[in-house]
Write a structure and sequence with these properties.
It is a single chain. The longest helix is centred in the middle third of the chain and has 18 residues, at 46-63. A hairpin with a 4-residue loop joins strand 1 (5-14) and strand 2. This protein is an alpha/beta fold. It has helices at residues 46-63, 76-91, 105-115, 132-148; strands at residues 5-14, 19-29, 34-44, 68-73, 120-124. It has a single domain, classed as Ribonuclease H-like superfamily/Ribonuclease H (Nucleotidyltransferase, domain 5, 2-Layer Sandwich). It has four helices and five strands, in the order E-E-E-H-E-H-H-E-H. A five-stranded mixed β-sheet has the order 3-2-1-4-5, with helices on both faces.
């Protein structure tokens, strides 16, 4: 089945930074189909988990044949990175404005490759603000982290 429109909420978190972390997404298709997924890593960072959530969500959307994706993240790092910073990083040989190597480059490369094959509309939402999809992701992230504690 193919979907015209898919809405995705993502979240990632860590107990300590670095430390055990979790990621999650909630994906809803235009016919009210919903898919949730989450995972964890023993030694990671918050930013890696935020990126992993988005990467895994976009992989799922790609498999579902999404024509348009509205992706909501509470991570300014992810939203600003993929919509702005990444263009300069590529021009600067994957270096920041301070000439330092871009952190989590392998995650950014994976995210960029996926984002370039899909019509993704990026949205930032405030975390812990009562937004249902974001709150559900937060619960899934906490459950994922608890499984490996």
């Amino acid at each position: 089945m193919s979907y015209q429109a898919i809405t995705i909420y993502t979240d990632g978190g860590c107990l300590g930074n670095p430390g055990p972390g979790g990621w999650a997404y909630v994906l809803t298709g235009d016919d009210a189909f919903t898919k949730e997924a989450s995972g964890s890593q023993h030694d990671t960072t918050n930013n890696r988990m935020e990126l992993t959530a988005v990467i895994e969500a976009l992989k799922a959307a790609q498999q579902l044949g999404a024509a348009r994706i509205d992706l909501y993240t509470d991570s300014q790092y992810v939203k600003n990175g993929i919509t702005g910073w990444i263009h300069k990083w590529k021009i600067n040989g994957w270096r920041t404005a301070n000439k330092a190597p871009v952190k989590n480059k392998e995650y950014w490369l994976a995210l960029d490759a996926l984002a370039n094959t899909l019509e993704v509309h990026w949205h930032w939402v405030k975390g812990h603000a009562g937004i249902a999809g974001n709150e559900r992701c937060d619960v899934l992230v906490k459950e994922a982290m608890e499984r490996i504690r």
